[in-house]
Amino acid sequence: MNAIPTLTPLAMPCNSSFNAKDWEILSTHWYPVARIQDVSTAPQRVTLLDVNMALYKTESGEIHLVRDICPHRGVPLTKGWVDGEEIVCPYHGLRYNTEGKCTQIPAQPELTKISDRFSLTKFPVVERYGLIWTSIHSRDITRANIPVLDTWEHAEHQSILPPFVDIGGSSGRQLEGFIDVAHFAWVHHNAFANRENPVVPKYHTERTSYGLKTVYISNVSNYPHELKHLEPEGFLWKRTFDVYPPFSAVLTVDFPEGGVLKILNACCPISSNKTRLFVPLTRNFDQTGDLEKVYAFNAQIFAEDQDMVESQKPEDLPLDLMMEAHFEADRSSTTYRRILAEWGLSKRYTV
Questions:
Q1: CA angle, corner 157, sides to 265 and 141, nearest 5?
Q2: pTM for this one?
């Protein structure tokens, strides 16, 4: 993990799709922006809350995240390249070190003291669960509400990181869909659920220091349909959702014979209506199984969810509970909405 840079205030982009107050609140939280395995010495653009960032690693392997703009004439640094431990702007060749300071202006090689105005806006880099996490305005990692996936580095659990999913919908809608248990029978009937079994037994939801926890017990199997024969007769499935607002949650599924599957649903709100979804997961069973089947099964489920999220109206998540109707099985989502509203996010909607 790199040293946390000092805070450089950054205004909301002029073309932002967010309500200004919402953007200020959300900019203080932490989000994943990329998989570690995808970072290279070729600078790549990632976007968080409409802020374009350049992500790269230097030749020593250190990962950096800066605003994707050269302070000299506004050219994206992702058009440039890494040379040793520095990133080079392609327009005039200005070089910036790992602290974001300009070390050389080739047009004036005799210049030994370069103004601090030639400095990059740096963002913190935290590596967890195979992902790069960052925040626009927070620098205190001890207070970051990064979700806990405690089995990721556990010797008895296999860690798996599928490809990310880009969704043309809001992060709030996506996260709420992830913790919604009433949609299983209707949206995931081709994957694992059954439209002949739509009833949602009463479940328990409570507030926590990090957000909320829901424990849901039912006879809805988590096995793909072709593996239903592995399920013991009368087995009840326990699903525990730990929700870390604004846009992350961990689902723990208790399998037969002590099996445990954990899925982290972690949203990067690219904009108010575009989400990059990362889904690290762990399991302590079937660890020699075909990973491609794991990827395919998860891709199927999230594609089914994506179809719903991208079609929802309004696109944003209404935090005024009177704007949409609710039934008892919605208690997780209504609690989630209340938490976001209490933060001061727009009652009309948030991302």
A1: 50
A2: 0.93
Closest Cα to residue 268, out of 45, 11, 103? 45
SS3 270: strand
Distance CA 5, CA 140 (A): 10
- What is the strand order of the sheet 95-96 is part of? 81-83, 86-88, 95-96, 102-104
For 266-299, the pLDDT digits (tens) are: 999 999 999 999 999 999 998 887 899 999 999 9
Q: Which residues pair with 119 in a beta bridge?
A: 101
DSSP 170-215: -HHHHHHHHT-STTHHHHSTTTT--TT-------EEEE-SSSEEEE
Assign domain 35-143 one CATH number from 3.30.70.660, 1.10.599.10, 1.10.3720.10, 2.102.10.10: 2.102.10.10
Rounded CA-CA distance 118/104 in Å is 10
| Domain edges within the chain | 35-143, 158-342
Return the closest-CA partner of residue 123 out of 74, 172, 201, 54: 54
Asked if residue 52 lies in contact with residue 45, where contact means CB atoms within 8 angstroms, the answer is: yes
Low-confidence stretches of the chain (pLDDT < 50) are 6-7, 351
Please state, in angstroms and as integers, the Cα–Cα distance from residue 86 to each residue in 20, 36, 350, following that order.
Answer: 34, 19, 38
Are residues 42 and 87 in contact, defined by beta-carbon separation less than 8 angstroms? no
Which CATH homologous superfamily contains domain 158-342?
Naphthalene 1,2-dioxygenase Alpha Subunit; Chain A, domain 1 (3.90.380.10)
Q: What are the tokens at 224?
A: 């793909």
Q: Which two tokens stand for residue 225?
A: 């349909």
- pLDDT reported for residue 288: 83
| CA dist., res. 251 & res. 242, Å (int) | 6
